[in-house]
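Checklist before submission:
- one chain only
- standard amino acids only
- sequence pasted in full

Submission:
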Amino acid sequence: MAGPPAVVTATKVTPPRPPRRYLGRARLVDRLEESVRAGRGVVLVSAPAGSGKSTLVNGWLDGRPGQPAWLQVDEGDDDPARFWTYVSAALADTAPVSPASVADALAAGLDEVVDVMVNTIAATGDEIVLVIDDYHLVTNPDVHTSVERLIGLRPTNLTVVLVTRFDPPIRLGRLRVRDELTEVRADDLRFDDTEAGWLLDADNVGLDHDAVARLRQRTEGWAAGLVLASLSLRDGVDLEAFVDSFHGDDQLVADYLGEEFLDSLDDADLERLLDASVLDRMSGPLLDAVTGSSDGAIWLQALASTNQLVIALDRTGTWFRFHHLLRDVLRVELERRDPTRRAELHAAAGHAFEEQGDYTAAVEHLLAAGARVEAADLVANHATMLLNVGRSYTVSRYIEQLSDLLDSHQGLAIVHGWLSFVMGRFAEAKQSLATAKRLDTDGVEAGLIQSLTGMIHLAEGDVAGGLAAIRDDVPMSDPTHPMVLGGIRVMAGLFDDAVPYLRTANEMAATRPDHFVAAVTPVFEAVAAIETGRSDAARTLADGALAYADDRRLSELAQVSLAHSIVARTSDGELAVDAAARGVQLARRSPENVMLTYALASAADVGFAHERPEAEEWLAEARSIVNRCVDPGIAGRYLGRVEARHGRAERPAVDGQVEELTERELSVLRYLPSTLSQREIAAELYVSLNTVKTHSKSIYRKLGVDGRKAAVQVARDNGLL
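Returned file contents:
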C-alpha cells in the first residue's frame, strides 16, 4: 500500500531571514564559531521565549560560509517519522538523505534512520551545521532518544545546534564532561547597554545613555521587552514618563501587546492580524485563500519591514510567521472577540492545505475548526499515504483525537482496524472491522473490509477462515486487495487459483505505481513456485522482489521476509544460512503467524542441512505457533515435511494420492477447518460424539496424517476442500 511521500513544507527547512535591522552580537557569535572550530559538536541555546535565540543562531549562520541545515520544529514533529523526514529534508543540500529513504528505513526502527544519516553525513566530509529550532515542542521520548543517538554517533564534520526554551531530556552532563557541549543561556543572551541602545535606536528617538540603561534594567536585557519598548517610542511620547513606567516582564509585555499595541492599530490592520493568527506560517496566496483578501503578499511584506515581531522565513519575502508572543496574544484576542470567526478561518485553512496536498496541516486546522467529520474524512482518505511514509504515530494521534467518531465513521473505523492489525492489536482490529462492516451499507469500503478480514484470519493462523472471508466477489479498486486475495490462496495451497489475482495486483501496482504491492506480490508468487517444485522460477522471483525492495528502500519490510526464505532454500553454504536467518528476523516484525511459521520452518530446514545449532530452536518455535493455529495452511504442511525430513516428526508426513473417503467421512472433513469441537461437529451432523471421533481417525489414516490441521491441508491439496 505504498503511496507518494508526504508533503514537506519548504519553510520548515529554510533558515529564516535575519530582521531588517540586525545586531550581529560578536561576543556570542564568536563563542558559537569557536565551538565549531574546537569540534565540540553540540550547541545548546536554551532560554525563555523572546530572548533572541533564533535570531542569534540565524545571524551567526548567515555570516559564515556553507549552507546550514535548519529545521523549524512544530507540534506535529512529535511523530518520529515526520521528525526525521524533516531532518533529512533539512540536510538535502548538504548531505542528501532523501525523505523517501528515511521513510523506508523507519521499517527497521529509529536506530536505522539515525545510522543512515550518520553514514551519509560522514561520507560527505564537508562541515555541516544542523539547527533544530524550537526543540522544546518535541515531547515524544522516542524522538529524544533518537536525537541523543545522533549526538552520540555524531561524525566529526557535524555540529548539532538545539534551540529550545528549556533543556531537552538528554544527558547534558556527559557532554559537558567530554567537552562536547557549548551552552548559551538566558543570562548570555541578555542585552548590555550598548546592544540595548542599538536595538532601541536610541540616537534617532532621543534616548540618552541613562534612559537606555534604565530600560535595559527594567527589561533585564530581555530582547522581546526591548523590541516592544522600541515599538512604543512613537512621535509625541513622553520619553521620561515612558521609561519610568515601562516594565519588561513576560506578563506586562503580554498585557502591552493586548491592550496598547492592538489598540493602536486601525480596524483593517487589526482584523487582518487576528485572521492571520490562525496560521503558523503564512504566504500572501495562503493568507488570501484563508481570509478572502487579495493583497496578502504586499501587506505581509510591508508589515515585516516595520515590525520585528513578524519574521520572514525565506530570502524571497514569500513566507512569514508571527513571533510566538504576538501570535499567542492575537489568538487569545480572536477567540475572545469572535470564536465563530476563528472556526471559520481554521476551516478555510484546512481546505487550502487540502488543495495543496498538505493533509497533515489540513487535518490539524479542521480539528481546530471543530469540523471533526471533515477531518475524519481526510484521515480515512489519506491514511494509507501517511502510513506508507511511516507516519503511524500521526495517524494514531488523529484517531485518538477523533475516537468519538470511531463508532459512526466507516472510513475512520477501517483505518483504525488496519492500523491496529499492523500493530498486532487483533482485538481492536476486530472491533473496528465489525464497526466498518455495520456502517458500510453502500459497499464503499468493501475491498478494504474483505482484505482486512482475510488478513486477520491469516495472522491468527486460520487459513480456512481467510478463504471463507474472501469468497465473495468484491470489486478491486486498490492493488492491495488482489494481492491479499492471491496471497491467502497461496498460503492455502490453492496456487492455480491465486495466479489471476496476483497478476492483477502486479498490473495495478505498475499503473499506480504502488511500490509496496510491486515488491510483495512476487514474494507470494515465489512461495507458490517453490511449493510446486519450480525452484529456479522461485529463486528468480525472490531475487527480483528483493532487488525491487532494495531499490525502493523497502528492504526492511516484514512482508519481504519469505523472499529471503526462498533464497535460503535455493542456496548453499553460509549464503543459505544467512538468508534463512534474515527471513526469520524480518518475519518477527509482523504479527502474522502463518508467515512467521513458514520463515521459521525454512530456517530450520536449512539449519539442519548445515548442522546449525539454532535449527532446533527455530523448529520448536514454529511447532509452538502451529499448535495454537486453527489452520496454518501450507506453513503447517511444510513444517511437517521439515520435521519428517530431519527425523523430528512422531509420524512421517505422507504426500501423493490418498485413499478415497466415504460420504460420512467427507461430511466430517468439511467441518475440520472450522473452530468447532468434535462435540459441536456431532451436534451439527446429528450424530454421536463417538461417531465423529471414529470418522476423524479414519480420515487421518487415509490422508496419512496424525492430526486435524494436517488433515485439512492434505485434503485441500487433493481438492477435497
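Reviewer check: The first strand starts at residue 42 and ends at 46.
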